[in-house]
User: Fold this.
Amino acid sequence: MASEKLMPAPHILIGCTGSVASIKIPMLIESLQQLNPKPEIKVVSTQHALHFFRKEEQNVIIYTDSDEWETWSSIQDPVLHIELRKWADVMIIAPLDANTLAKIANGLCDNLLTCVVRAWDFHKPLMFAPAMNTCMYEHPITATQIDLLKKLGYKEIPCISKKLACGDTGFGAMAEVPTLVSAVEQSLSSFNKNAGNTSLPSTSQSSGL
Ligand SMILES: Cc1cc2nc3c(=O)[nH]c(=O)nc-3n(C[C@H](O)[C@H](O)[C@H](O)COP(=O)(O)O)c2cc1C
Assistant:
């Protein structure tokens, strides 16, 4: 039908941190690219997350801390963490390791990923999938920090129990990729509904990124 409007491609920002579960980043990207309409995807990675997947083999842009500083040289230049925050319709941090969880819970912003989160627009969904060894997960500070993020309005995609990379079996593994994808899909549909089912926010369409 000529009157039918094409759904704009949603903009999904993936954040990843130095958990071994970052080995699933290629699978997460690939699975999200199967969504309809096909989303645009960008990734913000911490330095340590880069140990777990090959940045150069991904078919999406992977931003790291050096991009933040290399793209800015004078006062008119865009600030990458602000541009990404405007560009994204939803953000999923998967995996969220104990270190970055603690930083976000305390408002720290000492790298590109935590700056995006610190500048986040609370009208847009932000999801996080914790991933850590059971001993780290069971430390009481973990529950306190996860609760704090949930109180702020971020959505937890809870850990699961399984055999972990270190050989231990227990709770703390990142949720499986299909679970992450359905959480993103769900957040996009409620987000579109809130936006009146017509278009995504103008910020995501007008950003030069
Ligand atoms: C092989 C390896 C696997 C790791 N896996 C995890 C993990 O699953 N969860 C976690 O919280 N920390 C894990 N760590 C520790 C983090 O990488 C470390 O705390 C790091 O400082 C995190 O930095 P980032 O949050 O800036 O990425 C792992 C470290 C190594 C060497």
Residues 196-208 have pLDDT under 50 and may be disordered. The first strand starts at residue 11 and ends at 16.
